[in-house]
Structures
1.
Amino acid sequence: MSYNLSSFFNDLSNGLFINLSLDLAVNGRIVSQLQSELQNYSNGNAINDKSLESLVESQSFQFYKSGKSEWTRFNIMVVSFLRYCRDVNPWSLSESYDLIFQFYSDLNNCLLNDNYPIDPLVPIYQAATEYIIPVASKLDDHYMVLHTRKHQFLSHCSSIISKLFNSIKPSRSIDGETIMSEPSFDQLPGKQKILLYLVNKLNNIYFKIGSPQLCSNIFKNFKPKSMVTIFSEFPVKEQVEYRYLLGRYYILNNKIVDAFIQLNNAFLMLSSVADVLNIKIENSSPLKRNINRILKYLVPVGLMMNKLPKFWIVSKIDVNLANKYKELSDCVRTGNIKGLNGWLKLYEAELRKDHLLLILIEKLPMLTYRYLIRKVVLEYTMPLSGFKVPVFSIRIGIKIIYR
């Protein structure tokens, strides 16, 4: 079935925004047909930007009742999308990324003003975000070839998303009616429904670009912005992701107990999902991958708190992770300082990348010395029924350290 500009404008006028998709794998046929018309608009020539703007401004979009004569930002976003359709090169991301990010920015700007009917655009924005972030990561992976800065595109994504996050505030009315009681999640404005989603996207980006300290402002402002009073009303997926990211943030701030609570809760929530759906974790790739992300930090944090997992269970998710921390656990619990230092040196690069090296260096030696003293007292002092540690016991302890 043929699709043209007239069909496109008609869909928009009726509030159907599903075709405002940048993903060519999903919307490639529509984009291709619009591109053909836009590139042969007048006597075989492509429509220029000025004519494209005039064309969009001449449309009478009737899907909103705001009492305003026009929605300028919406028109700008539509022009941006049509530019993308006209000029996109489906075979070259490097030639098209400016069009992609311009549309994403203009779409984001549409959602900033709550006086317009922005809720139907929220799902489109989420879909665009899911498409844009992997694209930004891919471009950043080739920053030297593109002659751009490291993490330039992900940083740009975060600046766009943060504008929307900052625009969200608790509303005193819904659809013009004053809120008399706590609304249900389904009654909330669109931006409120995706607030936790935005929090997670921003914090994930900050971790990816090596700036996790920026998460502080996001975590601090999340609760004041939210109209949701019960955290469990948010989608389970977003709850788990939030607790995982908050746990990692606590690790960086040396709050081990808080980190353990958040990571453990995230793990328990995912395990509960598997139980409810009657799914074996090891047989579900997405579930297994997400639990592995959590265990990557939960296991070492638990070790620092002297709370060890059942390594045979961890091995069902990740054998290498289980073996690695089983070796570390054995060193700690036998008071083997030399073994501990060797383990830290062996995995130094990996631990530094995961922001675990410093906290393990700080916490584990003291815990290992405690086990060493316990071992010496139990095995060499108490059998002598003495209350003093003899010299030969100290020598034994030193030998244990350096064996």
Note: The first helix runs from residue 5 to 13.
2.
Amino acid sequence: MPLPIRHGRRAAARVRVSVSADAFHHMAMAAAEAAIAAPDLTRESYRLLEAWNKERGTTAIRRAKLPPSLVFSETGHETGGALFGQIERTAGVTEFHVGRAITTSAIRSDDGLVQSDISASLLADIAEAAGLPTVVGDFHTHPAVDTSLREIEEQELYSPSEIDLAGENLPHCEFSLIVTVAWAGRSKRLGADRPNLARRRIGDFLFYMTAYARGRRWSPAGEDFTLAIGG
């Protein structure tokens, strides 16, 4: 959930997003790693936690609100980053060809992500200096490994939240992707894809990729967005 710090260009009337297999796999692995292997508390965080707990005079740590400086999660973290590629603009249609995804620094938790606009600008500058494709969008993940596939499908937890849709794009970013990671186990139910939603299974994980744009009306049917993942 990036901070709406700078204004980005609005998406065209219709948007087509194609994601290379390499970029998709990078985002999928980042989503799974952040969801399963959430970082432990640092020694400094433990010290702050102990001091905070003494002040409150309670041992019910898990039921009380924690200091915002602590890294603490039971359900896994969100992560996110920048998307690199090319843009093609024709009459009424903007096409984004994503060839690479790079995770960026952010304030991460199990229910949110705050990305800095500095990351996108810095990476765009480096890409330009190296003669590489530039930043065209951003992505973030939804950890849902502790949620049943039925609940994910019924509540459409792979869709952007109100916070995801609010504000403006990060610099150089004209669209966003959400990668939701779920534990599929032996289930063979994958559900039906939509123009702006693609599902892929890798091992025991099921990944949902959703395309959208901030500051724009969200349509679950995906009339304005077409998303394709390379083979």
Note: Residues 14-38+74-229 form a domain with the Cytidine Deaminase; domain 2 fold (CATH 3.40.140).
3.
Amino acid sequence: MVDPKFLDTNYLVRNVAICTSCNNHLTPINQETKGRTSGNRLYACKSDKCKQLRIKAEVFDNVLKERIRSELNRFAGTSLVNKIKIGLNNDIDKLNKKYKIIQDGIEQNNKKQREIEYKIHKLTHLEFSENNRNFIESFTLFKIDLSKKVEFLEQELQNISKQKELINEVLTNENYWLPIINALKKQREDICKHEWRLLVTEIVSAIEIKKISNQKFKVEVRFKYDLPSFQFTHNEALEEKRGTQYLLF
């Protein structure tokens, strides 16, 4: 689920677009003058390594809208929901496996703690010596370290349980997806900014962008829920001239 405050933005792929050279999210930058008479809104990589990656947001967003909509419309209505449900069930299976691995890790750490407690107990009943004291201190520190690991793993179990609860109680409910399904049925110009943003944040896991040359970029759109990803080449100069068409990869 997406916090509604993240849906109200003029940058469609905020926190979704990634620079493939450094794996950092692209940062929205507004260089427009007052009244929008000049300048552009941009997505830019601000890491020291990749500052050259700058892409015009409005042109790029319009291309993505058409491309994403075209891809998702291949799964009409309930078909898309069914694909999402299959992906969610796969996510549940992965979470269950991860849960079991963490449970086993907790049990192993608890077993080690019991063994250390027994060793400490035996050492405390032996005749005092400097070596025994050093052993007790070392075992005690090791036990504390194991205890912290168990606390961390137990927190991980709680996080997994919350993810499973979200999937089972919210994301598998068809009504949750109705706004997205209905938006896909509309004409492009009738889909509002809020609906586009909801569609992107709920369906797209990442948009990976690599600069090929000046104003030319390789783009890969990765969907959630095991929906197939796709690639295309974004030619910024050409798109500005011809609107919202694109070059397929």
Note: Residues 4-79+189-248 form one domain.
